[in-house]
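ok here's the first one, seq then struct tokens
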Amino acid sequence: MSFEQLVANLDKSRMLDLILSEPDELEAYYEKYSVVELPERVREIALPRDFDSVVFTGMGGSAIVGDFVRSLLLDRASAAIEVMRDFKLPLHVGRGDVLVAVSYSGNTVETLRCVKEGVERGCYLVAITSGGLLERYASKLGASVYKLPTGRPPRTALA
């Protein structure tokens, strides 16, 4: 049996292909989203230098996005970068902070709770999702929404 046949027999969900395609997908998303367009209502006041902190909220594989960004920017970011995997935001998170909500499905209860809490506290919201309630809510608020491709295991949707 060849290696390819062995992989085909053992890897029914094509996880190896998805993992190997990750670098190309990251590069494509970097090119697509390297310039973030802020909604007009916050463009003048919500420049990156004005943010007190950036807080990623997500569960499971979705939180990996925050870990990845934090590790890339740890020695270059002037604002604090936090990654939350919880039902609640820390008390200090509020106005002046960017809340990046990551949920592949868009229906993760913990993430949606943090989004509601963050919006009530005056956070600037950015949503990363393939759809669901998160996309609808963020769009309704006029927040930035970055769409992920559908039809893949959430843990492989880093970009």
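and now the second one, same deal
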Amino acid sequence: MQNIVQEVRKTEEDAGLIVEEAERKREKIIEQAEERASEIVEEAEKDAEKEKLERMNKFKDKVNDEREEIVGEGREEADELREKASKNFENAENFLKERFEKEFQ
């Protein structure tokens, strides 16, 4: 009978060791999973930041292109207005000359 009790105790000790080992393995697995999850989150944050910068740069490029187009159109329009003003000035000058000549002839 004592032999049976000793075997039961030995089995309980072995079971306890098995449980402890399983607990250590479980903790190690959890720790590794948390580390990996942290790495994944960090990588995702870096990717998101990179994507954000790329989109911002594309947006800036688009804005600059549109700005250049608008400025170019404005310059063309200003050149046209200068040309018209110059013609109007010439016409006004000729008109005044003619009036002056008519008045003093």
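notes on #2: The radius of gyration is 45 Å. Residues 2-103 form the longest helix (102 residues).
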